[in-house]
């Protein structure tokens, strides 16, 4: 099957004041038709540049981009079967919501009654028919976000590009919009390429995620693969909290040069009680305790200056917070250990 969007060895180098910035560095990826694909990474890692190249707003320095099998590398944005929802929505303040949504049809000379009918249908799709005759300033942030979405959908793009579209919303509204957006994507069957720096957002919405680090794609995987089997230290630490161990520790526990264990996979028993398993893998003392609602995240300091470990302790099994200084026994199953690459620690 032809991919909806294919990038082959795509790079983008910006030159500013004599220096070159490799914003995107030899990225290759295939997004399938109907897929919800997320570009995830910290600020400055190249996500927006990558999205802009797919949309045609920035041309690659090298490499090629195709959409449904056709090479679009040199086409301008309006000749590509994609549309973009930008972070700042950029609605026209003097136009009604209906006219904002219908804008691209007006530019193409579609008659008023047809474009009003289509715009109203899309406002219904995003559950906002009642605001058609208002101006953008009379809408809340979440409503404006949905209008921006309707406006991008009216040209019936095969691929919708979304650059941190929920970034300006508060947490509660963002969570609500996440599930609405996901439901809408499923209903319309359009390919979504979604940019975010928020790992929770990426994990909860995406079919697959590509993780960016310094312009490179470090890993492409489903949310559960990414969380459970990160291939590099960067991915392990960016998509969740990870205990990363090297050297002697990694050799003993995992027979590898670097391993990671998620804090929720470490069992913790407190105090002088004998551990239920005959061998505790590690013994130490509670150094710090953070409350996360459903669990305590406990930092356990190991003797002789060994790296401390984080372990999550369910509140239902330990209603009282562990005390700093308590003796802690830690153990885990072999299945909790994952060898990872640690590129930064590898000599060049
Ligand atoms: P992200 O969206 O992941 O935050 P960007 O793609 O915006 O990252 O930026 C990647 C890198 O490219 C950053 O170092 C940024 O400063 C640089 N960059 C982005 N756009 C330009 C530009 N037009 N000119 C020069 N440098 C740019
Ligand atoms: Mg960006």
Q: What is the compact description of this entry?
A:
The protein is of the alpha+beta class and about 350 residues long.
Layout of strands and helices, then pairs:
Blueprint: E1 5-16, E2 19-31, E3 36-40, H1 47-55, E4 62-67, E5 70-71, E6 82-85, H2 97-107, H3 112-125, H4 141-153, E7 159-163, H5 171-188, E8 191-196, H6 199-205, E9 208-213, E10 216-221, H7 223-228, H8 233-238, E11 243-246, H9 247-254, E12 258-261, E13 267-270, E14 282-291, E15 295-301, E16 309-314, E17 327-331, E18 338-339
Parallel strand pairs: 3-8, 3-9, 6-7, 7-8
Antiparallel strand pairs: 1-2, 1-4, 4-5, 9-10, 11-12, 12-18, 13-17, 14-15, 14-17, 15-16
Helix pairs in contact: 2-3, 2-4, 3-4
This protein binds adenosine-5'-diphosphate and magnesium ion.
Magnesium ion (MG) binds at residues 47-48.
Please tell me about this protein's structure:
With 348 residues, the protein is of the alpha+beta class. The protein folds into 2 domains: 5-237, Rossmann fold (3-Layer(aba) Sandwich); 243-339, RNA polymerase II/Efflux pump adaptor protein, barrel-sandwich hybrid domain (OB fold (Dihydrolipoamide Acetyltransferase, E2P), Beta Barrel), CATH 2.40.50. The chain has helices at 47-55, 97-107, 112-125, 141-153, 171-188, 199-205, 223-228, 233-238, 247-254; strands at residues 5-16, 19-31, 36-40, 62-67, 70-71, 82-85, 159-163, 191-196, 208-213, 216-221, 243-246, 258-261, 267-270, 282-291, 295-301, 309-314, 327-331, 338-339. The protein has a 6-stranded mixed sheet, sandwiched between helices. Helix 3 (112-125) packs across helix 4 (141-153). The longest helix has 18 residues, at 171-188. The radius of gyration is 24 Å and the shape is elongated. The mean pLDDT is 91. Residues 14, 16, 21, 23, 41, 43-49 line the site of adenosine-5'-diphosphate.
